[in-house]
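Support reply, case 0932

Customer input (verbatim):
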Amino acid sequence: MRTKVKLTIWDPAEHLDNDEAMALYLEAAFAENDAALIAAALGDIARAKGMSDIARKTGLARESLYRSLSPEGNPEMGTILKVMDALGLKLSVSA
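Our regenerated output:
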């Protein structure tokens, strides 16, 4: 007997509903040391907060942000810093 399984696409942005969850999600992406994953995580957080609002706060085009903050994107450091500032997140370094 075969059982039908319904698959759905999981969207992390739907589960990033508070600042702590967003910070922990981004922290986990940084821990992987993968630039594409970090960009995608920032994109997920920006979508959760509202990409149009982030675009307005950064002065960058919404479409450009979607492209840059995708797993295939390669955002400049300036873009990352602008997005993090618009999200209310701070980048820190520790030894």
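We compared this against your earlier run and they match. Two observations from our side: The chain has one domain: 15-87. The longest helix spans residues 35-49. Please reopen the case if you see a mismatch on your end.
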